[in-house]
Amino acid sequence: MKHNQSLRIVAQRLVLLVAGVSVLSLAKAQTAPLSLKEALQQALKNKSEAVKARLDEENSQYKIDDARSQALPQINANGGLTYNPILQLSAVPGELAGQPGKTMLIAFGQKWNSSASVSLSQALFDKSVFTGLKAAKSTQQYYQLMAGLTDEQVIEKVATQYYQVLVQRQQLVIVDSNLATTTRVKNVIEGQYKNGLAKKIDLDRSKVNLSNLEAQRQQLINTVQLQENTLKFYIGIPIETPITIPYAQMDSIKPKLALMDNAPDVKKLSDYQVLKKQEELLALQKEATRAKYYPSLSLSGNYGYQGMGNSFPVGSGANWFDYASVGLNLKIPLFNGFSTRSKVRQADVDIRKLQQDIKNTELSLNLTYRNATTQLRNSIITLNNQKENVALAEEVYTNTQNNYTQGLAPLTDLLDAENSLTTAQNNYSAALLDYRLAEIQLIKAQGNLKSLLN
Questions:
Q1: φ/ψ of residue 98, rounded to 5
Q2: Mean of all residue pLDDT scores within the chain
Q3: 176 in Cβ contact with 213 (< 8 Å)
Q4: Using one digit for the tens of pLDDT, what is the confidence trace for 172-202?
Q5: pLDDT at residue 25 in the model
Q6: Per-residue model confidence (pLDDT) at position 5
Q7: CB within 8 Å of 264: residues ≥ 6 apart
Q8: Domain 34-70+126-294+336-453 sits in which CATH superfamily?
Q9: What one-character DSSP code corresponds to residue 66?
């Protein structure tokens, strides 16, 4: 009995150990560093816009199948059973029954009538059907282009938000570093004040400076939290899911001047191609409307079996016979009050309006590329200047701190140097974010946003 109880305790502990390891593994997986590539992959997999675009692409195949069905034979089976409790009487001349001059009322038909038939119709020539099939195939290509354009829009949003979170986190690291440095300076001044080597106002100013940095740090923490929540929304994951953005050294981010050498062919960009496919669809819509001018020819066939009798039509209780028919149906439109002509002209106006949109989009895409290259060039200049400014501010701060320690500089100079360094670092972080955003816009203008997935 004791042996079984010991085994049960050991088994329970093993279960708890395995569960604990699983929970730790899950927590570790949830907080694993999230790279930009992984964030984009999850967004394309989870975000509703991307999922709906893929569903539209899938649905386009069903539209092709529906359009193709109009060109295939249409076969229907029909059946019916009728009971006539009172047969209708028909008036016939009495001469038919040897009673001239009289009108006789005779019931025609049977109490029970049953029928079963199969009918077939096949379009031999119907221009609107074949135009609809071409339009369905173009619609599928349109949704494929729209899916690609939607993916690019999702990538742009996620990449932009990802870099905003990344830069804010780096700025938080800078503030933490400044807090540590300012705390050390405050402690030194506090020690000097206790020994009578520093004034109370010097200690108070250092405390104020430290308090300002702590307030700035709290604001950054709040900003990072809000931006992370926005990033989770763009990725399409629950807000409560923890994520970790890997820290990247600022010096490791090198401006890419070669990006500006790749001028795009705007006619190959998704925005332009979507409009051109819309133009093709409108042309097919116009052609489908014009198809109403053309005659249509179809083949029809019918085969059935019918039974009649005064009793329920089962077995020998009814008279059964079959029948069949085959026919050609020709429909020639002659006049519909100029309705077709009006619709054709409306379709033509829609095409001409879209052509103006295409021209405007082509100009807009060229403008976007030129502006993106200019913005990136300016961002690189600003980034390099701010980088040099940070290096200079660090040098000034280090020298001022040494001079202050040796009594060669007042506290005012040290605090000013510290504030200048903080400002320079913040400006560099802002310049870094501006560069990243300009880089994304240039990559978008070149139609290479999906390269961020590599």
A1: 75, 20
A2: 85
A3: no
A4: 888 888 888 888 888 888 888 888 877 888 8
A5: 38
A6: 45
A7: 365, 369, 445, 446, 447
A8: Outer membrane efflux proteins (OEP) (1.20.1600.10)
A9: H
Q: Count CB-CB contacts under 10 A for residue 85.
A: 5
CA atoms of 123 and 262, how far apart (whole Å): 52
In this predicted model, what pLDDT tens digit does every residue of 138-163 receive, in sequence order? 999 999 999 999 999 999 999 999 99
Q: How many residues does the chain have?
A: 454
CA max distance for the chain: 150
3-state secondary structure (DSSP) of residue 47? coil
The alpha carbon torsion through 333, 339, 341, 346 (nearest 10 deg) reads: -140
Where along the chain do the CATH 1.20.1600.10 domains lie?
34-70+126-294+336-453
Is 334 within 8 Å of 295 (Cβ atoms)? Answer: no
pLDDT of residue 248: 64
Among 6-15, 19-28, 151-160, 271-280, name the one with the lowest average pLDDT: 19-28
Q: Using one digit for the tens of pLDDT, what is the confidence trace for 340-380?
A: 999 999 999 999 999 999 999 999 999 999 999 999 999 99
Angle between helices 200-235 and 411-445 (to 10 degrees): 10
What 8-state DSSP symbol labels residue 123? E
Query: How far is residue 234's CA from residue 155's CA, in Å, rounded to a whole number?
Result: 9
404 pLDDT above the threshold of 70 = yes
Residue with tokens 């349109």: 142
b/e burial code for range 20-49 (CB count within 10 A of at least 16 → b)? eeeeeeeeeeeeeebebeebbebbbeebeb
**Claim: this prediction has a pTM higher than 0.90:** no
Q: What is the pLDDT of residue 20?
A: 39
Give CA–CA dist 7/15, Å, rounded. Answer: 12
Percent of the chain with pLDDT over 70: 90
Residue 117 is which amino acid? S
Dihedral Cα 265, 271, 273, 278, nearest 10 deg: -150
Kind and range of the H or E element at 75? Answer: strand 74-83
